[in-house]
UniProtKB/TrEMBL annotation:
PANTHER family: 3-OXOACYL-(ACYL-CARRIER-PROTEIN) REDUCTASE, 3-OXOACYL-[ACYL-CARRIER-PROTEIN] REDUCTASE FABG. Signal peptide: none annotated. Pfam families: adh_short. Gene3D superfamilies: NAD(P)-binding Rossmann-like Domain. It comes from the Bacteria. This is Short-chain dehydrogenase. Residues 7-191 form the Ketoreductase domain. GO terms for biological process: monocarboxylic acid metabolic process. NCBIfam families: PRK07326.1. Belongs to the short-chain dehydrogenases/reductases (SDR) family. InterPro entries: KR_dom, NAD(P)-bd_dom_sf, Sc_DH/Rdtase_CS, SDR, SDR_fam.
Length: 237
């Protein structure tokens, strides 16, 4: 089993939800984690909570995945502090749900620019660091990346695209020693789409479950690659 002590991770959208759960799980293994959020206040607040875990180290960085220069600067800040990048988790995402008739141009572009183009920007900005460490790229897609539904045109398009992007990246980067995996969760107890996690979410996947999955991937022998993982609640709600 691979030791994660003092390895580093860059997690987009890490101030809450799945990204935060992944950061917490990695830090409990002794990793150093940079999380990004839309504001420095949110990023600093989440990093402060993570640092109370007593293991690893967390820093918060304000960054917008829709802006390539923002991603470059965020990665540069992490590299300046720790000098290496072992794992990129492209987690930042959002959803607008409406019929084609009602979907606005702004909603379409925000969904595609965040969930798909933003992942390309994050990976592009991280490539040199990942090449140097023979690192890992993990994208957080969705079961909506293989199952379409009404009012899901923008979200389905972004997640279908993200699943395909990550699989193509896997083929492009495997000879560089970079492993690529996309995780495709079903219902997760998060703040997604203005939901507030509560006791009624007990049946759903919990953020620590996704965190454990990322730890397991990182600790797996590098000769083996689970390139696409579908994960859903064991029982329906």
């Amino acid at each position: 089993m691979q030791s994660l002590e003092n390895k580093t991770a860059f997690i987009t959208g890490g101030t809450k939800g799945i990204g935060y759960g992944i950061a917490a799980a990695l830090m409990q293994e002794g990793m150093k984690v940079a999380i990004t959020g839309r504001t420095q206040e949110a990023a600093d607040s989440a990093a402060a909570e993570l640092n109370k875990l007593g293991k690893g180290e967390a820093i918060g960085i304000a960054a917008d995945v829709r802006n390539y220069e923002s991603q470059e600067k965020a990665v540069a800040l992490m590299m300046e502090k720790w000098g290496r990048l072992d794992l990129l988790v492209a987690n930042a995402g959002l959803g607008h749900f409406a019929s084609i008739q009602e979907m606005t141009l702004e909603q379409w572009h925000e969904t595609i620019d965040t969930n798909l183009t933003g992942v390309f920007y994050s990976l592009k900005a991280s490539l040199e660091g990942l090449k140097a460490s023979k690192g890992y790229f993990i994208s957080i897609s969705s079961l909506a990346g293989t199952n379409f539904f009404a009012k899901g045109s923008a979200y389905n398009a972004s997640k279908f695209g993200l699943t395909g992007f990550t699989q193509a990246a896997m083929l492009d980067l495997r000879n560089e020693g970079i492993r690529c995996t996309t995780i495709m969760p079903g219902s997760v107890a998060t703040y997604f789409n203005n939901h507030v996690p509560n006791d009624a979410d007990a049946w759903k996947i919990q953020i620590e479950d996704i965190g454990q999955m990322v730890v397991d991937l990182m600790q797996m022998h590098p000769r083996t690659l689970p390139s696409k993982i579908e994960v859903r609640p064991s029982m329906p709600g």
